[in-house]
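Technical annex, item 7. During the second reporting period the consortium partners agreed on a shared format for inverse folding records so that results from different sites could be compared directly. Each record opens with the tokenized structure and is followed by the designed sequence. A conforming record, contributed by the partner at site C, is shown below for reference.
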């Protein structure tokens, strides 16, 4: 392995390039967010990450060829796979699902922009990961105001050290983020960097009146304002966002059963690759249905549907899950292809829903 040494000048140029790329790729951006990207270096938080090839995640370490270029590119950097951190992985790599990563910088920027953090705002982040986003939050709010939680002990310990070395001392806690962190609340701003289907009750309770919550909900980023009645309401950001899910408690993944029959369909798999439609489709799926790419699985009754080409869908279990996708597609086309940023979201401790109101006044509503 050849070790490449990077000097300060090179690191600064790399940071400037990332800040310009972030600015160019974001929808709307406050100059304070771009400034934070200029001031906070990314490389101390990702001395190791994985590169994936043919399903195998192989570690790349600081100093290796290409490391710095990838660190300061607008890319997701996977740092943990199946609980194995890139910094402790063997050269043979790891097979499985990513469990932690440093989010796409331009997406982080759009979320931070939506969060509208002001100096002195009390902030909770759920999903510390590498600590890079927490460092940006410290830059925006002041480190004394920032609390960040992650469910994984080793990640929390490493992130705390790296934040300290970068000159930031936020509160870094190992906790299940679904409970928030009541001791640090109420918060003016809550941001999650792992995905949920519903806004957890604790976040609603710990958000101060008029405070903001920015969180990935299904495949989109919801931005909600806390209302005086204790509920929160808002909209979705325009850009699509796939986040790893918030994992709570000791839940184990359920294996997807193999399909046992097939039928023809006029709705092929590519519809779910269209980010304009996939959010609408996900809203139609029952909360017990998980979707990975073109495969749907209802963990409640074992039904499964996997699109196997432009005109065939393979099915298993008691229900035909692909019918839901077909019905969603019909409704999306009938409503003239609504965009996710036209939908509103309302969240209370009990009921939560997403709504689309057409210009003519008709409303479609989904319970989350
Ligand atoms: C995309 S990564 C976060 C990226 C991070 N903000 C950064 O800047 O590097 C998602 C993180 O969510 C964490 N996570 C998943 N479920 C969680 C839970 N229930 N509570 C807290 N953190 C959780 C994972 O351990 C993972 O580190």
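Designed sequence (site C submission):
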């Amino acid at each position: 392995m050849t070790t490449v040494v990077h000097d300060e000048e090179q690191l600064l140029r790399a940071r400037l390039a990332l800040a310009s790329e972030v600015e160019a790729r974001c929808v709307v951006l406050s100059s304070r967010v771009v400034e934070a990207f200029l001031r906070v270096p990314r490389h101390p938080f990702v001395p190791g990450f994985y590169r994936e090839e043919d399903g195998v995640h192989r570690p790349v370490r600081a100093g290796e060829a290409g490391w710095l270029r990838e660190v300061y590119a607008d890319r997701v950097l996977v740092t943990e796979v199946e609980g194995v951190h890139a910094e402790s992985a063997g050269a043979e790599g790891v097979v499985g699902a990513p469990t932690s990563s440093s989010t796409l910088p331009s997406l982080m920027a759009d979320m931070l922009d939506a969060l509208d953090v002001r100096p002195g705002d009390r902030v909770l982040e759920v999903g510390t990961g590498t600590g890079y986003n927490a460092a940006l939050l410290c830059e925006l709010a002041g480190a004394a105001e920032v609390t960040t939680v992650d469910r994984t002990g080793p990640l929390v310990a490493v992130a705390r050290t790296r934040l300290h070395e970068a000159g930031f001392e936020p509160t870094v806690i190992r906790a299940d983020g679904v409970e928030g962190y009541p001791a640090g609340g109420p918060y003016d701003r809550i941001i999650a960097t792992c995905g949920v289907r519903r806004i957890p009750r604790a976040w609603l309770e710990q958000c101060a009146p008029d405070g903001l919550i920015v969180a990935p909900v299904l495949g989109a980023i919801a931005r909600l304002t806390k209302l005086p009645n204790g509920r929160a309401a808002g909209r979705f950001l325009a850009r699509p966002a796939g986040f790893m899910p918030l994992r709570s408690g000791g839940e184990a993944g359920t294996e997807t059963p193999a399909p046992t029959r097939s039928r023809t369909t006029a709705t092929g798999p590519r519809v779910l690759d269209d980010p304009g439609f996939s959010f609408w489709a996900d809203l139609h799926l029952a909360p017990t249905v998980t979707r990975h790419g073109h495969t749907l699985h209802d963990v409640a009754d074992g039904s499964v549907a996997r699109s196997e080409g432009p005109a065939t869908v393979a099915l298993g279990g008691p229900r035909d899950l692909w019918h839901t996708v077909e019905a969603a597609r019909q409704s999306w086309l009938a409503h003239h292809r609504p965009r996710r940023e036209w939908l509103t979201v309302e969240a209370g401790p009990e009921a939560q829903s997403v709504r689309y109101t057409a210009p003519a006044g008709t409303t479609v509503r989904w319970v989350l």
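The chain has three domains: 8-102, 105-236, 261-334. Residues 21 and 74 are 7 Å apart (CA to CA). All partners now use this format for quarterly exchanges.
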